[in-house]
Amino acid sequence: MHPYARFLDAVERPSRYLGGEYLEVVKASPALARIALCFPDLYDIGMSHLGTKILYTLLNRDPRVACERCYAPWGDLERELRGRGVPLVSLETAVPLRDFDVVGFSLQYELTYTNVLLMLDLGGVPLRAAARGPGDPFVIAGGPNATHPEPLAPFVDAFFIGEAEGLLADLVHDLARLRRERAPRPGALATLAGRYPLYVPALYRLTTSAEGLVVTDGPVDDRGPARVRRVAIDDLARFPFPDDAPVPHAEAVFDRAGVEIASGCTVGCRFCQAGMIYRPTRERHPDDVLRAVLHGVQRTGYDETSLTSLSTADYSAIVPLTAELMRRLKAERVTLGLSSLRAYGLPESLLRDLAGVRATGLTFAPEAGTQRLRDVIAKNVTEADIEETTRRVFGLGFRRMKLYFMLGLPTETDEDVTAIAKLAGRLQRLAQRLARGAQVTVSVSTHVPKPHTPFQWCAMDSLAEITRKQRLLRSFARAERLTLKWHEASMSIIEAALGRGDRRVADAIEHAYRHGARFDGWDDLFSLPRWEAAFAAAGVGPETYLAGLPVGARLPWDHVDVGLDPEFLAREHRHALRGQGAPPCGKAVGQVAHHASLAEDRADERKLVCYDCGAACDLAAMRERRAGFLRALGAEAPRLDAAIAHAGAAAPAPGPQRPAPGPGFQAAPGRRLRLLVTKLGPAAYLGHLDYLRLLPRIARRAAVPLFYSAGFHPKPEVAAGPALGLGIPSRGEVFDVRFEAGTAGETLGEDALCHALEAVAPAGVRFLRARELRAGDPPLGRVLGAADYAVEVAGLGASADDAAARLAALVGSDATVVRVHKAAERRLAVGPHLLAAWPAPQGLDLAALGLQPPVCVLRLRVTQDGALRPAEVVAAACGAAPATRPRAARLALWALGADGAVIDPFDLERVRGLPRPGRAPAPPAAAPSSVPSVVG
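RESULT FIELD:
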């Protein structure tokens, strides 16, 4: 039994913590090196993180390594774990974090740092590296925030600097060996620091800079490098994007199959840390992208996929690649999304295709309201570009556009702030002339000067100044009638202190954690007073890390070498303060988008821009690679409809436009079947909607897709039986589904169809039975009239027989029970809903249902407005609610005949003869002498 089994029904979305997802990997051999890959945020967010998917797949493909996952628990589970003394465990095998060889964290966002401590604490791992002994796991961390590691340095044994795909499996294997040998930790880590790109904080001396910051002063052991050099993957083809990562049970934040098509970015925005530290730009070959996308949707069952990168529009062959993908995905009834897109510079045909597939909205990031400030940050977008974007987006049928801006950029004035609202107002008026119901939303965040960027020496605006600018912007936004959203300024202040901080900040992080800080990136959980008290306790204020610094000052992250020439950053810093823009690297000056055909590419002999940043790009090889991508996609000559907007694409006609049509693919309805499906083990903790989302994915994986409705938001044709309470397992749920015509779902035999579906279903989901329905067969809402439940009855008598007698006495009685929901009470009659009760038969496998004897079986009436719950019947028999809610499991669903007898809903001949709605219910059937056969 899972260590959380007895209390999971008391927490929100238990499926976050159980594992058992389709495509998860379970390796149980104790001889393997074991790593818990930890993401310090909710499962819903972490399961969308592409980096975690890549590492999970790569590590588990290594026969020496077993990789499992763990995510930060929400407050309800934390309270249960602490109150019961139960540790935080992994998803795959429910092993506490303390029992792994390696606990590895992905550091993506500073305001998750207290969650790192939460997971270590609940997992039984000492928080501070200095307190860990030979038997404790090694705690390592990677990700973008590992490049400025000092605030977490006392809690982490080693930071992996760079892209871990090529080395992480070997590192985990070596760390596991050292742990088994119980090698002294300092010496063991010093040895590994000479072989891997590791920053081991314990190996470095600290000193105080002239500016009052605590910085490193070289290693105390010669095996530790003076500066740890970031490692980068030179060829992404060596590590194909995985198509077999676990598919989340619950709905994830980005609930789709996604493929990263490039690493790095050529745009060069001066505020963007990712655009700096992930240089040079490397792109996946189009063949690899096509393979990853198509295999991914087949393996996962998603009906939506996306291409992602820091700037998807700047992928060398984005136009022919997208056209080819949409052509292939159309046959699979799968929609394609593009992140980090822009409308200007891309062919009308591409945007029209996107609008025809899903005409909802697009997001763009001008970042600043004036051209002067856009030049400061090297954002190569003009106001004409932004207006053209608006014309094209709304002219093609999109209904919404979101614009991202930042406050607090270096050299910003009040004129720059108010220009945000004025620009957005002009765009909104333009959009409303082009499309009915057009909406432009403005989202504003606060600029945080990040390490390893040209702005790393810049001061950050104070909280008072940010607040003043937000008020100023809101007043102008009201005048423009804009929808304005903004990020909480105080959160940005703490984010800056944690990102730019030195090792003293670690004490503030621990103090904040011990005083309740959790999920600080969530507005409703963040507390500025708590963080102010934490920094006061640490003896240093957040403002220490917000001040401007002279170029050349020693910085707390100087010992991490991300591969950039320091003079490049200083030069870009000077250019920014002079308001001097910078065109993107890797393109010709003035070039907006890459060429969409080989002929255009070969005809353009202009020199490509290079800033000699230290990434050592080979521009000749870059040109040749781009030509190879176009050749591989068959894009030899320009398409006739691929007119580039900057070359004079015609604007749409003025006046409100009708939205684009719905998805450009429609299937024909095929046969309709009734399915009997189990919901056991981890699947029992899926919510009803999550379970409904699961069925279409299973059908897609099995190549028997369900039929979808038409419209902008197509829905699969699925009818379900009555919803189960969370955590209640079932031996047979009933669904009516319609399959798509012209697929195997229309031709496979019923048993073969069940086998095909079950082969690609997650743990606990079995397809037991299928029957084809005729036109006119009554829907499930008219068919199902009763349900059998097994329920624990401890406290109702010395035996199940005694308990059954007390329960049976309630049949037809006037007993009532009170149901409380959101502080509102509702009194329910028990007698009309309880049809029968009897002791559970000897052959019932209670362990498989998670039940403990004594157990009885209840037959409850199912009605259109819900049903009585088994626990409520037990409470009525007890006279009061039991101290512990009794667990239950659904055994079967039935139709009810006119005489009150139960009918198998798969006995279609009898079901077709059921009375129509509106007839008086039949009297309750007598309790059977033994449990009836479970359907299927």
